[in-house]
Target: Phosphoglycerate kinase
Amino acid sequence: MTDDTRLRATVPTITELSDKGAIVLVLAHFGRPKGVPSPDLSLAQIVKPYEAVLGRPVRYIDWEGDAANVAMLQPGDIAVLENTRFFGGEEKNDAAVIDRFAALGDLYVNDAFSAAHRAHASTEGLARKLPAFAGRAMEAELVALEKALGEPEHPVAAVVGGAKVSTKLAVLKHLVTKVDHLIIGGGMANTFLAARGVDVGKSLCEHDLTDTAEEILDAADRANCTVHLPYDVVVAKEFKANPPTRTVNVHEVAADEMILDVGPAAVESLGDVLKNCRTLVWNGPLGAFETAPFDKATVALAKTAAALTIGGTLVSVAGGGDTVAALNHANVADDFTFVSTAGGAFLEWMEGRELPGVAALLQ
Model:
């Protein structure tokens, strides 16, 4: 395990239950074994790191003889069960697998928002079989998300970045009906610029989606949502670390250049937008942030958002793998109101979709 973020996130729930005398059985998955057990994907290997994070002993229980081993546990004991995905029926939400899991416990607590978009046996089926509750991390996530898009304080801004429009079409269509300002960055901004008649040179651009981009812009107009596209950009002839670059107006991109970041003038005006907002939802970087110097726009706007959050004028919620990495890179992740480690679940929530793992808890 290279990153213990998700292990640490479970500590408040696990320790609280253990301290109250519950026998805590941890259900989790790792990788995609597709029902075929494999030593590489065994949860036996997380027991030691988990003990270090929890600061107390953790048992490991294989699915062979699981019931007998669970029966030997004492109140307050914590045990990690083997990878739930070693059962082929886990991802199919199979009744027999649900029954097997349910036979081991009296209550079910879901603390994994990151898996809430999956209707699997351990995330959805079990919640309908046993009395079900949200864990502390799940609770914090749902409270933060409700503040961000459920019942947010307006004006609301959303930053949506990333490489392709195609992966975030549903997000963009949903957000224009929910937010006052939609800030589009990353490679997907090029598709919107192309839809507006801008020649983006050899930039990453989904030219076949310009009509769809136009539809989203029209929908935003109807919903009184202001869409912010970059008007100055940082361009280079090749994508590598620290190549020769130019900062130009979007209408001055040469045929052999590619847009790799948002320019400083646009970032400054986006900062002014955030200063007039009360809520921010962020998913995706503004530029190719992993490669210097194309991290500048993302870092600058993230620092502005963090300062406004610390100042108490902005509720800032961010999520998704690239976003977390970008905020960590800018050293501001701890200054946002809430940063979600969830990827797929966060995106589906931004699309306005019902998450099966959450819906099951609300029953």
User: Anything to note?
Assistant: The longest helix spans residues 136-150. The chain has two domains: 5-135, 142-350. The chain has 15 helices and 14 strands.
